[in-house]
Amino acid sequence: MAQPPKNPNQKGHKGQPGDRLREQEALKGKHQAPPEPEPAVEDIPAPEGPTEIIETDYQVGQDNIEGTGAVPFDIHNPVFMISGLAVVLFTAVTYFFPELLGPMFEGLRNTLTSNLDWFFILAANLFVVLCIVLVLSPLGKVRLGGPDATPDFSLTGWFAMLFAAGMGIGLMFYGVSEPLGHFDAALGGPVIENGVRTDWAPLDGAAGDEMGARRLAMAATIFHWGLHPWAIYAVVALSLALFAYNKGLPLTLRSVFYPLFGERVWGWPGHIIDILAVLATLFGLATSLGIGAGQAAAGFNFLFDIPNTVTTMVFLIIVITGIATMSVVLGVEKGVKRLSEINMVLAVLLLFFIIIFGPTMSILTGFFGNLLSYAEDIIPLSNPFGRTDDNFRQGWTAFYWAWWISWSPFVGMFIARVSRGRTVREFLTAVLIVPSLISVLWMTALGGTAISLTLDGFEGIRNAALELQLFEMLSQLPMTGLTSLVGIILVIVFFVTSSDSGSLVIDTIAAGGKVNSPVPQRIFWCVFEGLVAIVLLLTGGLAALQAMAVSTGFPFTIVLLLACWALVKGLLGERRELA
């Protein structure tokens, strides 16, 4: 999450596009925490020009409990109390009763995805449709920050920050494994056992058709990393930005619901929204940390023959959580900011290395071919009813949508902070298109290379565990040791910066919107992100991690659906103000 720097962040401030220092400071994505400001409450710039200002007596932090002893604290009551206690109890019960909760996690995930897959798919479809309607409607002319506001960042810098927001552990873990997995499943076609379809192929598969299976595999992968997830993020980010920059409310999730609840949003309705946001974000982060630990452990095993065991993963989570905690204590300017910037450079270098030394023409032509396949299949893949590909729809799509939704407060907050001064049309077009195209290129390069190598007769990628498939693919390209080491570094630093900045986002919510709360609170959230990931790995592995992402994503989906209604009401108010 990124914040505006201190000097320009004052009432009436107009951002200056091209301010390179500000752009460099904000070029962090969801993996980078902000520099700590001096004031305890962030001063949101006042709207510039006529806007529908919402008058309220609420003050950020007015419900907080403060302490100045050996362990200072400044926490929102009851958001911190309930969410913190829930996390502590969950961690303790899960650790001490793993034999009971392990099977429960898997059953919970299966129940939610098999019975409510239609709900997740319909909700994601609604987010995409809403974004498209807003882009095409007169509401797209509304400018975030008021009609006279100017963008805080240049177009190039803003695009770069959206690129940063789109990079993460997921792209590293699934960049090879997902396209290849869909390809194999599609190539095998539907498998019927006892009258039930048991394969994992998307739609109807492409039995025996290599080109058809490749096309379908890439379309299905892009479907999970394209418009739908970014529409989820866009709705949250746009809602936060509108109610903070145009309505004059605090930059917190509960502010979005003022049109629905009025002043009650500062009471229990808002408390429940914030508690759900804390839990959804924490378990979404824990899922990513568990996935990252698994892939980092596989990489160390591949390069240095270190045993790839749960013990290794737990050790990695402890060490990396410790590093993230240190960055919370010392401040991000002393290392994590530079690590994040290096990480972005390494990601770009790895991508272009694969394009150059992999099947270059296949990747370049595949990029456009995959976009066409995605366009052809997006409607059938988005259809929640009348399909037979239950495993794909429930095991892949429903989980992904719940995971993205659990991440949405995290990513949405960052995007909102760097998008003041953009029109709604400009904002939604960029947020949907730029990261989606980056994801298409990434998946085409990594996944397309893996499929090409497999079709050429190399079986190592297909036979490897999911977390090892990236390294098996790199083993067939030059400089295997170096590129594999770069891959491990990318995973680890994404791991560190996600944990660090995630703890700050969660703490901001649990501190009633304050952005400079005492350090011990941030340490608490940072430590428990790691602990939750560890106990879930110990009790149920990846299935347990995914189960918690889905279980917290479900209630938060309801929250986001209500946010869509509030967003439209807020935008209609802006249009009336301009009329």
Automatic annotation (TrEMBL):
Residues 16-28 have a biased composition (Basic and acidic residues). Keywords: Cell membrane, Membrane, Transmembrane, Transmembrane helix, Transport. It comes from the Bacteria. It is found in: Cell membrane. Residues 1-49 are annotated as: Disordered. The chain crosses the membrane at residues 79-98, 118-136, 157-176, 227-245, 266-293, 313-332, 344-368, 398-416, 428-453, 473-496, 523-547, 553-572. It is a multi-pass membrane protein. Pfam families: BCCT (PF02028). InterPro entries: BCCT_transptr. The keyword Nucleotidyltransferase does not apply. Belongs to the BCCT transporter (TC 2.A.15) family. PANTHER family: HIGH-AFFINITY CHOLINE TRANSPORT PROTEIN, HIGH-AFFINITY CHOLINE TRANSPORT PROTEIN-RELATED. This is BCCT family transporter.
